[in-house]
Amino acid sequence: MVGRKNKIKRARTNGRLGKRGRAAAEIRRSEAYMAEGQRLTRTGTWALNVVTKRCFWSPELFRILEFDPASTDPSISTFLDQVHPSDRGAAQQNIDLVIHTGKDFAQDYRLLLGGGTTKYVHSIGRPITNKFGEIIEIIGAATEFTDRFHASPPTAASQQMNHYTRFLAAPRSDRGINLGSVGPLPGTEPLSCC
């Protein structure tokens, strides 16, 4: 009888570990799909912790900005150094706008990279608040559209799309995502980026 109880106990434990293993595999699969989707759409994601000013960049954003993740520490200044000097003030202004007003933003700007390469990027950002309504992070995405920009100069349709994008990014009454009682995910560090 004792031997049977141990077998049942091991089977239950193995079942739990099996569920955990399957859950971990699903998370890895989901992360791989997200990374591939970002690569296919040339969309990198970022986050900025407004208190610590620490940044997070996805691997695709590192690629768009032409930085090596192993040797580059993501930061607002590192990002702004890549923005074309004529667009840099507006990019900084959008970051400040989200931090101080809680308004979402959308902006097209140019990146001026090594060797004089110019890339065109569309960036959007949205604040995340705590349960007190204080902005704690900004999350966003940047989509490179250099090939499309060179393939067809701005038209009435693309200008209308730009207007539509600004409409979507207009401030909303909920001031972005409220993590309220959710708080940070277990085992995660505060995000931050630009």
Describe the structure.
Helix content is 46%, strand content 23%. It has one domain: PAS domain (Beta-Lactamase, 2-Layer Sandwich). It is α+β, with helices and mostly antiparallel strands and 194 residues long. Strands 1, 2, 3, 4, 5 and 6 form a 6-stranded mixed sheet that branches.
Write the layout of secondary structure elements.
Blueprint: H1 2-41, E1 43-49, E2 55-57, H2 59-65, H3 76-82, H4 85-101, E3 105-112, E4 118-130, E5 135-144, H5 146-151, H6 156-168, E6 177-180
Parallel strand pairs: 4-6
Antiparallel strand pairs: 1-2, 1-5, 3-4, 4-5
Helix percent reads 40-55%
Return residue spans where pLDDT drops below 50 for at least 5 consecutive residues. 167-194
Alpha-carbon distance between the two ends: 62 Å
CATH superfamily: PAS domain
Output the radius of gyration: 21 Å
| Number of self-contained structural domains | 1
Q: Please give the largest β-sheet.
A: 6 strands, mixed
List keywords for this structure.
194 residues; Beta-Lactamase; disordered C terminus; alpha+beta; 6 strands; six-stranded mixed β-sheet; 6 helices
Summarize the structure.
This protein has 194 residues and is of the alpha+beta class. The chain has 6 helices and 6 strands; from the N terminus they run αββαααβββααβ.
